[in-house]
Design brief:
Helix content is about 85%, strand content about 0%. The protein is mainly α. The relative contact order is 0.17.
């Protein structure tokens, strides 16, 4: 049974890293579920404090997941409509990615990168802003999305590192 849980943990860790990029999958949350699976083995490698700290980190990341791209838009001079557009782009990306990503793979990649960017741009244009201002605001949304995705990847990789260290320790004993 331990081997099955460890294999599931490995799969969830990989999906967690992939989910750090895709807005459809909650990457760090999946990696946290993987920690729980590893704890269900007969080895019990983690303490209660470990789980509490990581739960707080995951909650913080999840909340900020929807704030950072909008903050990037605002930081680059975006208006409220640009920020709303960025948020709409994130939500639309979550809905559209699963539908079109399966059918047309390049469309999926384009939408993942361009969804929040496009909607922030459209929001600024709707607010009556010039092309250069709208483009700068949309760029802020993109920078926020990319930097946030990188942070989630780092957290997911750290969580995967805990797994490999613990599994290595378990099987070396």
């Amino acid at each position: 049974m331990d081997i099955v849980l460890i294999v599931l943990w490995a799969l969830l860790s990989i999906v967690g890293i992939i989910g750090s990029i895709l807005p459809v999958l909650p990457g760090p949350l999946l990696a946290y579920v993987a920690f729980i699976l590893l704890q269900l083995t007969s080895f019990h490698p983690f303490s209660r404090t470990f789980f509490i700290v990581w739960a707080l980190i995951i909650m913080f990341l999840t909340i900020l997941d929807y704030i950072i791209p909008a903050r990037g838009t605002k930081k680059f001079g975006g208006t409220k409509r640009g920020v709303r557009g960025s948020n709409i782009g994130l939500v639309v990306s979550v809905i559209v990615l699963p539908i079109f990503g399966i059918v047309i793979w390049p469309f999926w990649l384009l939408w993942l990168i361009g969804g929040p960017f496009l909607w922030a741009y459209l929001g600024e244009k709707y607010a009556g802003k010039q092309h250069n201002h709208a483009l700068r605001s949309a760029r802020g949304s993109f920078v926020g999305f990319v930097s946030w995705s990188l942070l989630k990847i780092v957290v997911s990789v750290i969580m995967a590192g805990y797994f490999f260290v613990n599994v290595y320790t378990i099987f070396i004993k």
